[in-house]
Amino acid sequence: MVKKKTLYLILLFLILAIGFLLINGGCAKRIPQETDDAKAFKVLKAKVTDPRTGLAKTLDPNLIQGEDREGYLVAKEIPEILAQLPCFCGCEALGHESLLDCFVDKHGVG
Does the pTM exceed 0.70? Predict the structure, then answer.
């Protein structure tokens, strides 16, 4: 039962990610975020990293309005999976190492 739930969450996340890319015209557009330099993002990420798992904690989904909240709910459920996926929005120049980093602040809602 747990595997089935995890599979559904992964599929939901992938559908949301694909929808996000289609709505925003693909990956070429740079998505603004709260921390516009690598040093500031590194400080933010260090503050929100869970010492037990070593993974960054996602932003509280309750802080996000509308349909974007769903992405943060899924990200909160599967951080270990997002930490293994690359992000293609160009945010690596800001210090992002994986898709999980996009959900540390409001960057994930673009």
Answer: no
